[in-house]
Amino acid sequence: MEKVILRCRELSKSYKTPSGEKCIIDGINLDVKENEFVVLFGPGQCGKTTMINLLSGLEPPSSGTVELNGQLVTGPGPDKGVIYQTIALFPWLTTMQNVEYGPKVRGMPKKQRRERAQHFIDLVGLQGFEHVYPIKLSGGMKQRVGIARVYCNDPFILFMDEPFGALDAQTRYMMQEELGRISRQEKRTVVFVTNNIEEALYLADRIIVMENCPSKIKEEYVIPLPHPRDYMDPEFLRLRKEISASHG
Ligand SMILES: Nc1ncnc2c1ncn2[C@@H]1O[C@H](COP(=O)(O)OP(=O)(O)OP(=O)(O)O)[C@@H](O)[C@H]1O
Ligand SMILES: [Mg+2]
């Protein structure tokens, strides 16, 4: 039986607003297995980012629990990698320096961390751009640096909050294909957020459909299609139609 890595139970989050307490996440139970690629799919403002913040320990829940590998999550840390929609690279550091940043602050010797960073720079297809500063990189390339950086940190689990949401359609497709390839090569447990059904279907082992705010889990779909997937495959299109029709 596959091991459960991330487990949340009765997870809820409310915020105090001028008009009273507002419930955003309402009693979510979720298990994510080792090396599973889970996509949280839901409409705008349904609480997807809030979920990522709770799962990664950036924010405490109002009630309920999140456990990572049997340990209660009480805060963020290098074991939990997060990639955001607008990536925050250090503008004063080159590609190499951005990617090796995590191992560097943890004291990994230079030769070792350079080799490690180079492996991930190659993996995301940025060889030749090691000594370039972020200002010289396109949006897609910056996301590649962001992906290399988070993998280089060797997190136990990866959270990705609409990482391709700010890219143009063409680049977005390309990055979906790249991430598919990368995550097959470097197996990790991933929780990926999107409001784009094609993107969800392209990447997911399992899609969790979130209901509108306050968010609960509305439905889930195991996606058995082999990788790399074909956006035009009849079964892909059928699933896309089925999920969009029920949750469009
Ligand atoms: N710190 C906060 N205080 C009060 N309300 C908040 C806070 N953070 C989020 N919210 C509210 O929670 C709801 C869900 O926000 P969240 O950002 O989690 O949604 P989302 O699904 O990620 O949205 P989007 O699709 O725009 O990224 C929104 O109505 C938002 O205003
Ligand atoms: Mg969001």
Task: Summarize this entry quickly.
The chain is α/β, with parallel strands linked by helices and 248 residues long. It has helices at residues 48-55, 95-99, 101-105, 110-123, 139-152, 169-185, 197-203, 234-247; strands spanning 4-17, 20-33, 37-41, 63-68, 71-72, 80-83, 157-161, 189-194, 206-210, 217-222. Strand 7 (157-161), helix 6 and strand 8 form a beta-alpha-beta unit.
Descriptive overview:
The chain is an alpha/beta fold and 248 residues long. The protein has 8 helices and 10 strands. It has helices at residues 48-55, 95-99, 101-105, 110-123, 139-152, 169-185, 197-203, 234-247; strands at 4-17, 20-33, 37-41, 63-68, 71-72, 80-83, 157-161, 189-194, 206-210, 217-222. The strands form 2 sheets. The chain has a 6-stranded mixed sheet, sandwiched between helices. Strands 2-1-4-5 form a 4-stranded antiparallel sheet, with helices on one face. A hairpin with a 2-residue loop joins strand 4 (63-68) and strand 5. The chain binds adenosine-5'-triphosphate (ATP) and magnesium ion. Residues 48-49, 161 line the site of magnesium ion.
What number is the mean pLDDT? Answer: 95
- Portion in helices: 25-40%
Distance N to C terminus: 34 Å
What is the percentage of strand-forming residues?
25-35%
Bound molecules: adenosine-5'-triphosphate, magnesium ion
Low-pLDDT residue intervals, each spanning 5 or more residues: none
Report the strand count: 10
Strand line-up across the major sheet:
6-7-8-3-9-10
Pairing-aware structural class of the strands and helices? alpha/beta
